[in-house]
Amino acid sequence: MSQTKISNIEGGKFIPTLVDVELIIRALDASPEVIAETTALARLANTEWQDHWALRRRGLDKRQNDLAGFEKASTEFRYFLPTMITGLLATPEYVRASLADESSDVSRTIAKKLERQAILYDPAKRFTFILTEQAVRWPLIPAGALAVQIDRLVSLSRLPNVHIGVIPIGAEVKPGPLNVFTIYDDRVATVEVSTGALIFRDRRDVATYLDEFSRFERFALFGENARERLAEWATICRS
Fold it and tell me: pLDDT digit string (tens) for 73-128?
């Protein structure tokens, strides 16, 4: 580890990763008690919690700015979506329905969500989305509108830098998924729960989600196989 990096850590200019901390405390021959305490602090320093109530007070449209910042700084994106369709893939009606429980004016949030979709057409960015059948077919909007939403997934899957996979019901997938998560390059992983979002920057945490994504990816249908299955689900909605 360079002296410059040590100096930046000591001066508070750089937050050390968990690996950095372990290297330093091992070199210092620290006691087991100090190792445990320092490692726990390092993990906290590399983990951020954003609760839903604080986001509401700040303004949900500001959250869209945060996401746009992640997207601008990254080139490869992986989305695992076991419950709903993400905003980048959503039609305007789907976006509005996803915010229906908000009491405040969400027009700016909707506009920014739709504005962010332009990044899908940037050939320098690569996207992989994995959706379960439950996520695709969840009746958030009327059946006819849901068919249009599924048609949009088919259309976007034809973009050369966008890969949309679906995991149909019937496939035996173990272990089962717990949460929606997104991975930006191999630097940051965000995990969404009902009351907020966790942001992980430690390499070990991010690597865990990369491994989980790869495991689900093996069960997903892509390309024409995915488009055929999506078309079947859209037909069911229309009928």
Answer: 899 999 999 999 999 999 999 999 999 888 778 898 999 999 999 999 999 999 99
Q: How far apart are CA 201 and CA 82, in angstroms?
A: 22
Classify the phi-psi angles of 45: left when phi > 0, otherwise alpha if psi is within -120 to 50, otherwise beta: alpha
User: Where in the chain do CATH 3.30.870.10 domains reside?
Assistant: 47-238
pLDDT digits (tens, 9 = 90+) for 48-69: 888 878 777 777 777 788 888 8
Please say whether the structural domain 47-238 has been given the CATH code 3.30.870.10. yes
Q: pTM (2 decimals)?
A: 0.83
Class of residue 3 by CB neighbours under 10 A (exposed 0-12, middle 13-18, buried 19+): exposed
Tokens of 239: 């009928």
The answer for 20, left when phi > 0, alpha when psi is -120 to 50, beta otherwise, is alpha
**Spatial separation of the C-alpha atoms in residues 213 and 153, rounded to whole Å:** 20
